[in-house]
């Protein structure tokens, strides 16, 4: 029988009397050097685990002799531990597991945050794809088991490289349960600035969503006039990627050919990112951020407060007929249509001022075709270009390119005699 015993952060003292007895009476005791040192008086055969392929082969041979074998591991053997690998190689009838508290459980206890809804990832000797996916999905809490190569600074750098709209505080918990235990909270930027600092290899990193609405003075002061990074915008909690990306916003503002003191409609405003960029670039204009969902209107309102904009008017739209009641626009941007693109274009044709222009952002070929046909049939001038941006992503000392979805930008204006 092979018994897999999880050791807590206070070593041998974390075991019950029963489990201690199992360890001390085993014929063979296997574990890392650190774990074996907890049992200096052990009288049986002690084997240091070093190479899993060789160790598992050796373990199978030893198990044939029906000896009592104990394997020492950290925390819960079945939580990103050796247990999963053992179950793949050895009949589960020959295995018993004795779990202990995990470092992640203790870390959440120390930072006083519930952990039932956290997303757990191990990058200990693994690739970083799952970590990157979790950042992109905008998980509220991400607990990460690290290794000496993927340090807290490396993880923070990956997050910042993605240029996401979700903001986090980063907790780094070192040497939990030991005399030299350290628990600190960092902003991502502050953490990567500690590039010369070496954290203990025994660390857990926890990303916790930061819901601060107002930018601090330093953040606000450093905002560019044009092209705010996506990470500064509040967005939908369940769809963090549903926002017009920075590079596309810059192109949209260029296509709109903005002038002072204009009336601008942003239809399907979503998070309000385009409206806010317009308002900062042309603070004498009036921008109507038109959105049909209550959640969207709430986010637009919060983002206006966040960026201290005073010329954006969040406009909840119950029906398209309400567009007729708005002042006639000089510029129109359509970022979303809710399946009513033709109806929206018909209203825009009636309301758009002479010499005005309209820009549509389109993600699908079908809607692109619908739009072009409508402009042709209604004698509008139009031009089209597509954008597909790939962003760099630092992976240790290397750089990858991660693509964003392609977007079509269609600019149109009325023909006049």
Q: Please, could you describe this protein's structure?
A:
Keywords: Cobalamin biosynthesis, Methyltransferase, S-adenosyl-L-methionine, Transferase. GO terms for molecular function: protein methyltransferase activity. It comes from Atelocyanobacterium thalassa (isolate ALOHA). Residues 2-183 form the Tetrapyrrole methylase domain. This is Precorrin-6Y C5,15-methyltransferase (Decarboxylating). This protein is α/β, with parallel strands linked by helices. It has three domains: 2-101, Cobalt-precorrin-4 Transmethylase, domain 1 (3-Layer(aba) Sandwich), CATH 3.40.1010; 104-209, Methyltransferase, Cobalt-precorrin-4 Transmethylase, Domain 2 (2-Layer Sandwich), CATH 3.30.950.10; 217-414, Vaccinia Virus protein VP39 (Rossmann fold). It has 14 helices and 19 strands. The strands form four sheets. It has a seven-stranded mixed beta sheet with strand order 13-12-11-14-15-19-16, with helices on both faces. Strands 3-2-4-1-5 form a five-stranded parallel beta sheet, with helices on both faces. The chain is elongated, with a radius of gyration of 29 Å. The termini are far apart.
Strand and helix map with partners:
Blueprint: E1 2-7, H1 17-24, E2 28-31, H2 33-36, E3 45-48, H3 52-63, E4 69-74, H4 82-89, E5 95-98, H5 103-111, E6 119-122, H6 129-137, E7 141-145, H7 152-162, E8 168-174, E9 182-186, H8 188-192, E10 203-209, H9 217-221, H10 246-256, E11 263-267, H11 273-281, E12 286-291, H12 294-307, E13 312-316, E14 331-334, H13 341-351, E15 357-362, H14 365-377, E16 380-387, E17 390-395, E18 398-403, E19 407-414
Parallel strand pairs: 1-4, 1-5, 2-3, 2-4, 6-7, 11-12, 11-14, 12-13, 14-15
Antiparallel strand pairs: 7-10, 8-9, 8-10, 15-19, 16-19, 17-18
């Amino acid at each position: 029988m092979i018994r897999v015993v999880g050791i807590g952060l206070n070593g041998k003292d974390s075991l019950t009397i029963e489990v201690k007895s199992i360890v001390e009476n085993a014929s063979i005791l296997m574990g890392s050097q650190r774990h074996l040192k907890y049992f200096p008086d052990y009288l049986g055969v002690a084997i240091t685990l070093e190479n899993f392929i060789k160790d598992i082969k050796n373990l199978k041979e030893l198990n044939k002799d029906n000896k009592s074998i104990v394997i020492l591991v950290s925390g819960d053997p079945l939580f990103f531990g050796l247990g999963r690998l053992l179950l793949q190689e050895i009949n589960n009838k020959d295995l018993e597991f004795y779990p202990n508290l995990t470092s992640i459980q203790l870390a959440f206890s120390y930072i006083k945050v519930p952990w039932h809804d956290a997303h757990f990832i191990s990058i200990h000797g693994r690739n970083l794809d799952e970590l990157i996916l979790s950042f992109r999905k905008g998980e509220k809490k991400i607990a990460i088991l690290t290794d000496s190569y993927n340090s807290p600074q490396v993880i923070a750098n990956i997050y910042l490289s993605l240029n996401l709209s979700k903001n986090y505080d980063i907790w780094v918990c070192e040497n939990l349960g030991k005399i030299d235990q350290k628990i600190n909270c960092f902003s991502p930027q502050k953490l990567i600035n500690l590039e010369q600092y070496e954290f203990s290899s025994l660390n857990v990193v926890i990303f916790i969503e930061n819901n601060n609405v107002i930018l601090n003075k330093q953040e606000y002061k450093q905002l560019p006039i044009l092209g705010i990074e996506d990470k500064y915008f509040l967005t939908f909690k369940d769809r963090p990627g549903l926002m017009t990306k920075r590079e596309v916003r810059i192109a949209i503002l260029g296509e709109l050919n903005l002038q002072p003191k204009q009336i601008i409609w942003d239809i399907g405003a979503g998070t309000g990112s385009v409206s806010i960029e317009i308002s900062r670039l042309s603070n004498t204009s009036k921008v109507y951020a038109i959105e049909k969902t209550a959640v969207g209107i709430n986010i637009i309102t919060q983002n206006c407060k966040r960026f201290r904009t005073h010329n954006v008017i969040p406009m909840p739209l119950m029906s398209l007929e309400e567009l007729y009641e708005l002042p006639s626009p000089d510029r129109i941007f359509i970022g979303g249509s809710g399946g009513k693109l033709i109806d929206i274009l018909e209203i825009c044709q009636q309301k758009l001022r002479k010499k005005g222009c309209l820009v549509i952002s389109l993600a699908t070929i079908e809607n692109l075709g619908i739009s072009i046909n409508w402009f042709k049939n209604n004698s509008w001038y139009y031009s089209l270009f597509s954008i597909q941006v790939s962003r760099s992503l630092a992976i240790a000392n290397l750089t990858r390119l991660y693509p964003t979805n392609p977007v079509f930008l269609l600019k149109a204006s009325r023909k006049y005699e």
